[in-house]
Specification:
Immunoglobulin-like; 11 strands; mainly beta
Length: 113
């Protein structure tokens, strides 16, 4: 298991015995969210979807949820409710393909058939 702390690395030349030490690096290991709960995965269902409607779960409450097409254009924006759920309904003009759904810092793929 990883341990938080400040670390350095020392390299020693075996021929001369000269040593060199790196600058200190601080490492912080995060095992849970600020609320003390383990982070939930962001899930989409159904995935793949037929018709462009899907439900996202596992987002932070109030998180902005955005959907991007294969060219990186934003095609939908929503806000996760108090339970971290967002209903996503793409407009009828969206083509079949793979979309990227971002919920805060996390992203998942949505396939529309």
């Amino acid at each position: 298991m990883a341990t938080s702390g400040t670390y350095t690395a020392t390299a020693t030349d075996p021929a001369t015995g000269c040593a060199s030490t790196s600058n200190a690096v601080t490492v912080t290991v995060v095992l849970a969210t600020a609320t003390g709960r383990a982070a939930q995965p962001v899930l989409l269902y159904p995935n793949p979807t037929h018709g462009g409607a899907a439900t996202l779960t596992g987002a932070a409450p109030g998180a902005r949820v955005t959907v991007f097409d294969a060219l990186g254009r934003q095609v939908l924006a929503a806000t996760a409710d108090a339970s971290g759920t967002a209903a996503l309904v793409l407009s009828a003009g969206q083509t079949a393909g793979v979309y990227v759904v971002r919920a805060g810092p996390r992203a998942v793929r949505l396939t529309v058939e």
